[in-house]
Specification:
By secondary structure, this protein is mainly α. It is built from 7 helices and no strands.
Protein backbone atom coordinates (compact mmCIF):
# COMPACT_ATOMS: atom_id res chain seq x y z
CA UNK A 1 0.00 0.00 0.00
CA UNK A 2 1.26 3.39 -0.81
CA UNK A 3 0.40 6.65 0.92
CA UNK A 4 -2.32 7.61 -1.55
CA UNK A 5 -4.34 4.46 -0.85
CA UNK A 6 -4.15 5.02 2.93
CA UNK A 7 -5.33 8.58 2.58
CA UNK A 8 -8.31 7.57 0.48
CA UNK A 9 -9.52 5.24 3.26
CA UNK A 10 -9.52 7.96 5.91
CA UNK A 11 -12.82 9.79 6.32
CA UNK A 12 -12.76 13.35 5.12
CA UNK A 13 -13.86 15.30 8.20
CA UNK A 14 -14.61 18.94 7.69
CA UNK A 15 -14.70 21.15 10.75
CA UNK A 16 -16.61 24.41 10.68
CA UNK A 17 -14.28 27.41 10.61
CA UNK A 18 -12.97 28.13 14.10
CA UNK A 19 -14.40 24.96 15.72
CA UNK A 20 -10.97 23.51 16.40
CA UNK A 21 -9.77 26.74 18.00
CA UNK A 22 -12.90 26.98 20.17
CA UNK A 23 -12.44 23.38 21.33
CA UNK A 24 -8.81 23.99 22.28
CA UNK A 25 -9.75 27.23 24.07
CA UNK A 26 -12.47 25.44 26.01
CA UNK A 27 -10.10 22.64 27.01
CA UNK A 28 -7.50 25.19 28.16
CA UNK A 29 -10.10 27.09 30.20
CA UNK A 30 -11.23 23.84 31.84
CA UNK A 31 -7.60 22.88 32.53
CA UNK A 32 -7.04 26.34 34.01
CA UNK A 33 -10.10 26.01 36.24
CA UNK A 34 -8.91 22.60 37.43
CA UNK A 35 -5.47 24.05 38.06
CA UNK A 36 -6.97 26.90 40.08
CA UNK A 37 -9.12 24.53 42.14
CA UNK A 38 -6.28 22.10 42.79
CA UNK A 39 -4.00 25.00 43.72
CA UNK A 40 -6.51 26.14 46.35
CA UNK A 41 -6.74 22.60 47.74
CA UNK A 42 -2.94 22.32 47.73
CA UNK A 43 -2.69 25.62 49.61
CA UNK A 44 -4.94 24.32 52.36
CA UNK A 45 -3.63 20.78 52.66
CA UNK A 46 0.04 21.80 52.42
CA UNK A 47 0.84 18.69 50.39
CA UNK A 48 1.83 20.43 47.15
CA UNK A 49 2.94 24.02 46.59
CA UNK A 50 -0.28 25.89 45.85
CA UNK A 51 0.90 29.19 44.31
CA UNK A 52 2.77 27.68 41.34
CA UNK A 53 -0.27 25.51 40.53
CA UNK A 54 -2.54 28.57 40.75
CA UNK A 55 -0.10 30.53 38.58
CA UNK A 56 -0.44 27.82 35.93
CA UNK A 57 -4.15 28.68 35.70
CA UNK A 58 -3.28 32.30 34.88
CA UNK A 59 -0.89 31.20 32.15
CA UNK A 60 -3.50 28.85 30.69
CA UNK A 61 -6.22 31.52 30.63
CA UNK A 62 -3.80 33.96 29.00
CA UNK A 63 -2.96 31.47 26.27
CA UNK A 64 -6.59 30.41 25.82
CA UNK A 65 -8.13 33.86 25.60
CA UNK A 66 -5.21 36.06 24.64
CA UNK A 67 -7.01 38.46 26.92
CA UNK A 68 -6.10 41.27 29.18
CA UNK A 69 -3.52 39.37 31.22
CA UNK A 70 -0.44 40.88 29.63
CA UNK A 71 3.08 39.57 30.00
CA UNK A 72 4.05 42.11 32.68
CA UNK A 73 1.08 40.97 34.78
CA UNK A 74 2.06 37.32 34.39
CA UNK A 75 5.68 38.04 35.29
CA UNK A 76 4.54 39.97 38.38
CA UNK A 77 2.20 37.18 39.46
CA UNK A 78 4.95 34.60 38.83
CA UNK A 79 7.37 36.54 41.01
CA UNK A 80 4.74 36.78 43.75
CA UNK A 81 4.02 33.02 43.51
CA UNK A 82 7.75 32.30 43.76
CA UNK A 83 8.09 34.68 46.70
CA UNK A 84 5.22 33.04 48.56
CA UNK A 85 6.64 29.57 47.90
CA UNK A 86 10.11 30.60 49.09
CA UNK A 87 8.64 32.34 52.14
CA UNK A 88 6.66 29.22 52.92
CA UNK A 89 9.91 27.25 52.86
CA UNK A 90 11.58 29.80 55.16
CA UNK A 91 8.77 29.73 57.71
CA UNK A 92 10.11 26.50 59.28
CA UNK A 93 13.23 28.49 60.12
CA UNK A 94 11.02 30.93 62.01
CA UNK A 95 9.35 28.00 63.70
CA UNK A 96 12.70 26.50 64.66
CA UNK A 97 13.95 29.78 66.12
CA UNK A 98 10.79 30.19 68.17
CA UNK A 99 10.83 26.65 69.51
CA UNK A 100 14.60 26.27 69.91
CA UNK A 101 14.22 22.67 70.98
CA UNK A 102 14.69 19.51 69.01
CA UNK A 103 11.89 17.64 70.85
CA UNK A 104 9.47 20.42 69.92
CA UNK A 105 10.45 20.19 66.26
CA UNK A 106 10.06 16.40 66.23
CA UNK A 107 6.78 16.70 68.13
CA UNK A 108 5.62 19.30 65.64
CA UNK A 109 6.27 16.95 62.71
CA UNK A 110 4.61 14.00 64.45
CA UNK A 111 1.62 16.17 65.41
CA UNK A 112 1.24 17.42 61.84
CA UNK A 113 1.05 13.89 60.44
CA UNK A 114 -1.23 12.68 63.23
CA UNK A 115 -3.49 15.73 62.94
CA UNK A 116 -3.70 15.41 59.17
CA UNK A 117 -4.93 11.86 59.61
CA UNK A 118 -7.58 12.85 62.14
CA UNK A 119 -9.15 16.04 60.81
CA UNK A 120 -7.56 17.27 57.61
CA UNK A 121 -6.60 20.07 56.94
CA UNK A 122 -7.31 21.75 60.28
CA UNK A 123 -5.56 18.91 62.10
CA UNK A 124 -2.35 19.85 60.35
CA UNK A 125 -2.16 23.21 62.10
CA UNK A 126 -3.59 22.08 65.44
CA UNK A 127 -1.44 18.94 65.36
CA UNK A 128 1.70 21.00 64.81
CA UNK A 129 0.90 23.15 67.84
CA UNK A 130 -0.06 20.22 70.08
CA UNK A 131 2.90 18.11 68.94
CA UNK A 132 5.40 20.86 69.70
CA UNK A 133 3.92 21.43 73.17
CA UNK A 134 3.80 17.70 73.97
CA UNK A 135 7.33 17.22 72.61
CA UNK A 136 8.62 19.90 74.98
CA UNK A 137 6.62 18.62 77.96
CA UNK A 138 7.78 15.03 77.48
CA UNK A 139 11.42 16.11 77.61
CA UNK A 140 11.05 18.08 80.86
CA UNK A 141 10.71 21.61 79.61
CA UNK A 142 8.54 23.77 81.83
CA UNK A 143 4.96 24.48 80.78
CA UNK A 144 5.40 28.15 79.84
CA UNK A 145 8.37 27.41 77.56
CA UNK A 146 6.49 24.50 76.01
CA UNK A 147 3.47 26.71 75.24
CA UNK A 148 5.72 29.38 73.75
CA UNK A 149 7.39 26.71 71.62
CA UNK A 150 4.01 25.53 70.39
CA UNK A 151 3.09 28.95 69.03
CA UNK A 152 5.90 28.92 66.45
CA UNK A 153 4.47 26.06 64.36
CA UNK A 154 0.93 27.37 64.76
CA UNK A 155 1.78 30.89 63.62
CA UNK A 156 4.05 29.66 60.83
CA UNK A 157 1.44 27.30 59.39
CA UNK A 158 -1.34 29.88 59.71
CA UNK A 159 0.73 32.57 58.01
CA UNK A 160 1.70 30.26 55.16
CA UNK A 161 -1.87 29.12 54.48
CA UNK A 162 -3.18 32.70 54.68
CA UNK A 163 -0.62 33.98 52.17
CA UNK A 164 -1.34 31.15 49.75
CA UNK A 165 -5.11 31.55 49.99
CA UNK A 166 -4.86 35.32 49.42
CA UNK A 167 -2.79 34.69 46.30
CA UNK A 168 -5.25 32.06 45.09
CA UNK A 169 -8.19 34.41 45.69
CA UNK A 170 -6.60 37.26 43.75
CA UNK A 171 -5.61 34.92 40.93
CA UNK A 172 -9.10 33.44 40.88
CA UNK A 173 -10.56 36.92 40.50
CA UNK A 174 -8.37 37.62 37.46
CA UNK A 175 -9.11 34.16 36.06
CA UNK A 176 -12.88 34.69 36.20
CA UNK A 177 -12.54 38.25 34.91
CA UNK A 178 -10.59 37.00 31.89
CA UNK A 179 -13.29 34.44 31.12
CA UNK A 180 -16.11 36.96 31.41
CA UNK A 181 -14.43 39.60 29.27
Amino acid sequence: MNGDECQSRLPDIKFPPGAYIQTVQTLMIVAGALSLASGVVASITLVLPGPPIVFLSLVLIRVATGGEANIAFLVTMGIIATGISVTNRLIPTLRNSLTESRPAILGCLAGMFFGMGLIPPLGLVIGAFAGAVVGDLVFDRNRSLAMAGGWGPFLGSSLGVTLKLCYAGISGYFFVRAILS
